[in-house]
Amino acid sequence: xxxxxxxxxxxxxxxxxxxxxxxxxxxxxxxxxxxxxxxxxxxxxxxxxxxxxxxxxxxxxxxxxxxxxxxxxxxxxxxxxxxxxxxxxxxxxxxxxxxxxxxxxxxxxxxxxxxxxxxxxxxxxxxxxxxxxxxxxxxxxxxxxxxxxxxxxxxxxxxxxxxxxxxxxxxxxxxxxxxxxxxxxxxxxxxxxxxxxxxxxxxxxxxxxxxxxxxxxxxxxxxxxxxxxxxxxxxxxxxxxxxxxxxxxxxxxxxxxxxxxxxxxxxxxxxxxxxxxxxxxxxxxxxxxxxxxxxxxxxxxxxxxxxxxxxxxxxxxxxxxxxxxxxxxxxxxxxxxxxxxxxxxxxxxxxxxxxxxxxxxxxxxxxxxxxxxxxxxxxxxxxxxxxxxxxxxxxxxxxxxxxxxxxxxxxxxxxxxxxxxxxxxxxxxxxxxxxxxxxxxxxxxxxxxxxxxxxxxxxxxxxxxxxxxxxxxxxxxxxxxxxxxxxxxxxxxxxxxxxxxxxxxxxxxxxxxxxxxxxxxxxxxxxxxxx
Length: 531
What we know:
Blueprint: E1 7-13, H1 17-28, E2 33-36, E3 52-53, H2 65-81, E4 86-95, H3 106-114, H4 124-136, E5 147-150, E6 166-175, H5 177-190, E7 194-196, E8 199-207, E9 210-217, E10 223-233, H6 239-246, E11 255-266, E12 274-278, E13 284-290, E14 294-298, E15 302-303, H7 315-326, E16 338-349, E17 364-368, E18 375-379, H8 386-397, H9 424-434, H10 440-450, H11 454-458, E19 470-472, E20 475-476, H12 477-486, H13 492-498, H14 508-530
Parallel strand pairs: 1-2, 1-10, 2-7, 4-12, 10-18
Antiparallel strand pairs: 3-6, 4-6, 5-6, 8-9, 9-10, 11-14, 11-15, 11-16, 12-13, 13-14, 17-18, 19-20
Helix pairs in contact: 1-5, 1-8, 9-10, 12-14
Cofactor: FAD
Family: Belongs to the FAD-dependent glycerol-3-phosphate dehydrogenase family.
Catalytic activity: a quinone + sn-glycerol 3-phosphate = dihydroxyacetone phosphate + a quinol
């Protein structure tokens, strides 16, 4: 940690996508930044998303046009900066006359007034109008437009029940959410920020307009004090606790915690497109190709009252999602087909909405000076708009720092993303050419994780044996060492569930072997750093 007498410009609390995005933007503008995360990067909400850069088609029903437009524009800005961890994806929206609006949306209320005979059903023309807006609000340049499908003849209709004859197909983007967080943290550090993981903020108080922040290394219990001119509270689900208990400010802004759960099943269809399913209750559900051999299904919206309570996908939620997709599938699934579940808590701004589903997903940024020095509290947001949220945060931060440079992050590549959007297959081919021991699946995984840095990670290896111990699937000691040295990984869970999803592949024994290896490696790295 930095010396106690050094005053930083910003102390960012929280190593999720908002905290890391703000740290990167701020460091790139010349501010001195320290980021403290009490666990691993992306260990909470930012690794538990539906993993999409998307405009939020359903938000049109809530008339959140600014949020949708900003999100649609950002899809392609982000895609161009990280073509290794994000890529275009087509979504198939099957249509049936029984589809209904959620009862508390502005659109449903208007339809009930002007077209009461529809009884809450979504007419096909209104869906097509929404997709037209979705195509045009953001000004697409890379992604293809909406089209129609005949499900009786198209391959996308094969997994679906016979009653679905028509579908619309539109574009959005996939993103590896937790890798996005890590790459932002790495870029922030490369631009001068200090990134501290497993570091808890114990307390903060101001003295003469400067924050005195007590930090504690979780693994050792060692404490130190950092001084900072401003605090950014990007604590995610803990944002309210930080306001009340850590900073002890008089802010009246509240957070609404909403749990979103997902299930992962065996692969349910053979093509690489996703489905956007609409339920008779007005809710929507995605079914997305996942990690080659699986299907990701989600999400739910449930109130979550305590940030300290670990979010889990409950049996009721699992059954709800299974029943939801079974209304569409020709071959129904059961909960026995679920191979993994995960759940995250969205820290939404408490706007007084009547339900968790209706609560705004837009971000709200509030500067509070009631404690004597400025704090920027971050509420809500979507992973798609994290970069724009960071720019908005820097607009507010700039009011407390003179001559701050303007925005710079649009289109600037994240580590490993310095190649064209349409050149992924070229990257895979050249990696296989230069490292002949790689098969297509292995090379593709490495490019999708590390982009142009894959060859740096592989180094001078000429055979698979040169990469050291094989832990399972194609995870080797060389890759684990890279993740520990360059990507803040400390334990097997960091590697298997946040830096990758190889937890779906490795057995319990292989995971234990990886943990043993990383424990020994940590001791070596600490010894090297002390020399």
